[in-house]
Amino acid sequence: MKPVNVGLLGLGTVGAGTVNLLAHNAKEIGRRAGRVVRITHAAVQNLDKPRECPTDGITLTTDPFAVVNDPDIDVVLELIGGEDDAYKLVMAAIEQGKHVVTANKHLIALHGNEIFAAADKHDVVVTFEAAVAGGIPIIKAIREGLAANHIEWLAGIINGTGNFILSQMKFEGADFAEALAEAQALGYAEADPTFDVDGIDAAHKLAILGSIAFGIPLSFDRIYTQGIRGIHADDIAYAEEMGYRIKHLGIARRNDGGIELRVHPTLVSEKALLANVEGEKNAVMVYGDAVGPTVYYGAGAGAGPTASAVVADLIDTVRIMSVDPTGRVPHLAFQPDQITDTPILGNEGFFCGHYFRVQVADEPGVMSQITGLLAQHEISIEAILQKDPETAGDDALIIIVTKPVIEGQMMKFFDSLDDLPYTRPGLVHMRVAQFED
Ligand SMILES: NC(=O)C1=CN([C@@H]2O[C@H](COP(=O)(O)OP(=O)(O)OC[C@H]3O[C@@H](n4cnc5c(N)ncnc54)[C@H](O)[C@@H]3O)[C@@H](O)[C@H]2O)C=CC1
Ligand SMILES: N[C@@H](CC=O)C(=O)O
Ligand code: NA
């Protein structure tokens, strides 16, 4: 059979990783795909830049539209990242009836609803396994492997750079900037690394996961997002003393009032599987009503792991080419006319445990007044700790983990706590997650 010609856009970390992997496992890939898959053209920004892969047999150009418009190209592989150019190129490819493989979560999270509608209209597929949790086949697992389930919730470490930074700070004593620079050198970080550290990249991925898990439109702008910059070493130590680790999680869960979509630092029991995921590794837990808890673990970033997902998508795409469009797996897991606009909750509707650290004047009865105030707000305590702060001689630090409660109730408690005469400003607050694993 005629080889499948792939036009690659972007020959950076993932692009070069993909060229290398296609060459390294060419025989195995051909045996699986049933056809030879070859990259014939690649668009780059600088023709003279040294590459991390051989480019013989690939025609290089600085014009990505020349690749997209080439009639000999069957599949466009978008690996330039970012929003604007990628959007125009992907839409142009779709309009010409070309299938697309992309690793670009930014693009899918913001424009996926429109891109998938266009792809359906033109009878082509847009695959995006590499866009979430790098090499872990999480899209395939949720979209196909768990298709019989009503998915109740999912929670995961879905940014390799952020997890790598937290691990380097904890185990190697690295400071934040050092750890980030190392993640960048290793090819884990986004072109703009604030996307990694401010939780935006994780929110892009959570938008995709939430959509394929619950059959809702991609809803990036409704996601509650906090990054890792505010995590303080003292809280890592206090959390550990109470039996928790602090992880940056993306969580999507059904709740009586709607759906929670949130990305934030989270205390997780040290015994939970997610608590023990370190470095650039990612892990996603998905809870389906029939299957119960399932966990998917592996490398969330880096050339090889991401190329693994990209090439798997290419193989799928080659097989899909000969399938009647009505027999294909829907882009967002549910048939397009079954995607429903379920309400997405604001943070006051979240249901979870809370960690807070407050500095108070060390006077008799203060602790009992705080626990009494929690009781008044019908909030139960899971764990409690008292410490001396490093500064301020007569003050004390009170650190409490609560049982799960609606966040609006917790916010009212914080308001009342703030009104007490002996509490100092600077309350630290994080959420706590309990998992059955
Ligand atoms: N690096 C990783 O571990 C992962 C990356 N991704 C995604 O994969 C995509 C690519 O990421 P990386 O390879 O890490 O980025 P990168 O920055 O290493 O590579 C992107 C390449 O595209 C080129 N490029 C940009 N605009 C272009 C244009 N208009 N025409 C031609 N070339 C252009 C750049 O010069 C660069 O060489 C992004 O969407 C990223 O979010 C997804 C999963 C993991
Ligand atoms: N920058 C991302 C790359 C993979 O998606 C990350 O660190 O997870
Ligand atoms: Na993946």
From TrEMBL:
Q: Which GO terms describe its molecular function?
A: homoserine dehydrogenase activity; nucleotidyltransferase activity
The UniProt keyword set, sorted, is: Amino-acid biosynthesis, Methionine biosynthesis, NADP, Nucleotidyltransferase, Oxidoreductase, Threonine biosynthesis, Transferase
- Entry annotated with the keyword Transferase: yes
Q: Record's Gene3D superfamilies?
A: 3.30.70.260, Dihydrodipicolinate Reductase, domain 2, NAD(P)-binding Rossmann-like Domain
Q: Which top-level enzyme class is recorded in the Swiss-Prot or TrEMBL entry? A: oxidoreductase
> Which CDD domains does its entry note?
ACT_HSDH-Hom (cd04881)
**PROSITE patterns per record:** ACT, HOMOSER_DHGENASE
Q: In which pathway does it act?
A: Amino-acid biosynthesis; L-threonine biosynthesis; L-threonine from L-aspartate: step 3/5; Amino-acid biosynthesis; L-methionine biosynthesis via de novo pathway; L-homoserine from L-aspartate: step 3/3
Q: What is its EC number?
A: 1.1.1.3
Known Pfam families for this protein?
Answer: ACT, Homoserine_dh, NAD_binding_3
Q: Which residues form the ACT domain?
A: 355-430
Q: Which family does it belong to?
A: Belongs to the homoserine dehydrogenase family.
Q: What is this protein called?
A: Homoserine dehydrogenase
User: What organism is listed for this UniProt entry?
Assistant: Spectribacter hydrogenoxidans
